[in-house]
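Handout, section B. The chain below has 166 residues.
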Amino acid sequence: MANQNRSYERLLDLLGVGAGAVFGLIALATTYDVVLRNISGVTLAGLAELVEYTLFASTFLAAPWLLRHNGHVQVDFAVGALSERPRRLVRRIADAVGLIVCLVLLVYAAQVTWDAWRNGSIVLKTLVFPEWWLFAVVVVSMALLVLEFARRLWVGQIEPHGPHDF
């Protein structure tokens, strides 16, 4: 069990670090493209699409890592004012709602992914690739979010202390 938990945590860390690296590469590539376009009038074909798809994928894939570290945006001034027991109850309810929402999205995303794969749908723009690749990112993200919300409900969550404690 400890090895599985360690592997799971490493996977989430890899996704978080990978998303950060992708965001950095997006910033560099976009800057390079703007400079290139202003100097020579030439732009990199497909870069805008690639940025869209990698931004989409990295955002979804970083979400489980953020949840694990309580890095999601929270409006907790009201919850923080509660005493410990009601605060834990509200957070457990929020985790249960998150679990249910992510489970519904997981089922829907899996159906959409399966349909896109079965139908052979493709994205046909400057970049061409099977459409199910995009939807599979959502499936993986939702599956990991379901696991993380379930873990939080089972073992409890880390109490957030401040905006930079993740």
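Note. The two ends are 24 Å apart (CA to CA). Compare this with the example in section A.
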